Amino acid sequence: MATVGIGSKISITGLASGIDTQSIIDGITALNARRIQILQAQKAQVTIKRTTFSDLRGKLLELQAQSGRLSRTVAGAFDARTAVASDPEALVAAASSSAAAGQYTVTIDNLAQAHQLASENFAAPGTTIKQGTLTLKVGAGPATTVTIDSTNNTLQGLAEAINASGGEARAAVINDGTATPYRLLLTSTKTGAANAIQLTNNLTGGSGASINPANTIVQAAADARVRIGALSVSSATNRVDKLISGVTLDLKKADPAKPITITVAPDSAGAADAVEDFVASFNAVVDYIDQRDNFDPTTQQAGVLLGNYDAINLQRELTTTLTGSVSGVNQMANRLSAVGIKLTDKGKLELDRTKFESAFNGGVSGVAAEDVKRLFALGGTSTSPGVKFLLGGSKTQPSGATPYQVDVTQAATRGAARGTNVIDGVDEEAP
Fold it and tell me: Which residue, of 24, 124, 203, 298, is most buried by count of CB atoms within 10 Å of its CB?
């Protein structure tokens, strides 16, 4: 029994005195700490796996995006066109996916020009001119009026006032090298015969020099004119996009005696670039899995994906899909290897651009660009010229040996309605 007194020490007797409570407490604490360490290690492993699968998902999404570029039926990677002119200094051409491949011969008779007018000559840009108003209009555009008073009644002041007005004509003071060399030059911001500059000159007040901004026609307003065979087309600008369907022409130089050949063809280089991006995306997925599905004997560390069935099965399914043949496609081009895409011994894809572009350009006997496209893209054909396959999706099922039967009983029509009653100048609307 313990006795306690002032200034005395505590002593314990009995059974409790033989128990090492501190050792017990330390042991329990160490055990709990070990359990916490195990849970923390497990948490770290779960976090690493979660991050790994998240990164793998990102690479798969990129592969899906690149595959989508190749699988589009309309305006996809295989539908692009190139347009090359025999004289690029005279004409630059661009073609959309709707342009028909072939050669076209055009002749540029003349370029579109902007109207230019010049005033009479003055001794200096600061020469004082008469005051009043000047109204300018380009073609059927809005009229703009500038006011010239004692604060800006100089040749340079008039030019600045015209430019500040925001109209469709621009002004500059030029030097023509004569004894009195300075002139006001007006230029339309629009080309074409219909966009001539129209003036109303009321600069008549004050004691300054008289000025006629339309004193000289420097350049007449003119349309561009292009011929293709016996067909002649005019354009208010030097960009012509209605002469050849799907082809835009930027005219640079006119020469009525020089025909220019425009060659429109499938863009094999662009298609190869798209396929190369797809190959790179597939290889990125393979590399990512391979780098984590291994065992390092030096560090005795297993990769995060080592033995992971899902990752291994995913890689196997991708490889099987890409090395198999595609049904319904020309047998000369029904697998990737036929167009220059092979599987290496490391399980990655490798593109032979020369072979691919040759197949795409018709350089392989029995293979056309459409065959290469159908190898990648979902496609369909119709026995009727009135029905055309446009596109499908991931849920579109192959028709197999028996095609789908489509019966068109009526074509779509456009509806229209017109009101006839007017009340107090306001059209009456139906409830």
Answer: 203
DSSP H helical segments within 308-419, as ranges? 309-323, 353-360, 369-376
pTM above 0.85, yes or no: no
- Residues 209 and 213: their CA atoms lie apart, in Å, by 12
Which residues have C-beta within 8 Å of that of residue 356, sequence separation ≥ 6?
A: 268, 271, 272, 275, 339, 340, 341, 372
- Residue-wise DSSP of 381-408: --SSTT-------TTPPP-TTSPPP---
Q: What span, in angstroms and rounded, lies between the C-alpha atoms of 47 and 173? A: 72
Mean pLDDT of the chain: 85
The whole-number pLDDT of residue 351 equals: 94
Q: Count other Cβ atoms within 10 Å, centred on residue 338.
A: 21
CA angle 262–263–269, rounded 5-degree value: 135
**Side-chain half-sphere CA neighbours of 212 within 13 A:** 5
Is residue 38 classed as helix, strand or coil in its secondary structure?
Answer: helix
pLDDT in tens, 255-278: 999 999 999 999 999 999 999 999
Q: Which residues contact 11 (CB under 8 A, 6 or more apart)?
A: 2, 3
Q: How confident is the model at residue 431 (pLDDT cuts 50, 70, 90)?
A: very low
The residues spanned by each domain of the chain are 81-112+224-266, 114-219, 269-376
CATH architecture of 114-219: Sandwich (2.60)
Closest to 91 in 3D by CA, of 229, 212, 238 = 238
Give the separation between CA 58 and CA 284, rounded to whole angstroms. 11
Q: How many residues does the chain have?
A: 431
